[in-house]
Amino acid sequence: MTILPRVASIRASKVSRIFFDKFVDMMNNKTNSFIRTRGLRLIAYHAKWDNENKISSIIEQWLSHIEDEKPITARQCIQDVIVNIKTSTIMTSENMTP
Question: CB atoms < 10 A from the CB of 14, how many?
Fold first, then answer.
């Protein structure tokens, strides 16, 4: 029974690695806020499987959506900041500058 969570984690890690660039494209969609929101949320919730630290390379883009023109997208981004911080290594002391 203990092997199932490990298999799920390996699959999720693979999905995250394969589709990360697609998630970023979704996040940067200029025409549809629903697609932007989905991209932002997918990136946030896949942060725990980001072994290659890809999120750190796009974190400023991701955070810029806190001021998105659509309030729902901005709200989702603000809520998901907590998810990103809890599950990734992007907010380490070496990444933080005063």
Answer: 11
Q: What angle do CA 54, 59, 61 make, to 5 degrees?
A: 115
In a domain, 25, yes or no: yes
**Residues 58, 77 contacting (CB under 8 angstroms):** no
pTM recorded for the entire structure: 0.74
- Over the stretch 10-49, which tens digit does the pLDDT of each residue have? 566 666 678 889 999 999 999 999 999 999 999 988 888 8
Maximum alpha-carbon separation in the chain: 46
Helix pair angle (33-45, 3-27), 10° resolution: 150
What's the domain range around 22?
A: 18-87
Residue 91 backbone phi and psi in degrees, to 5: -105, 50
The dihedrals phi and psi of 97, each to the nearest 5 degrees, come to -120, 140
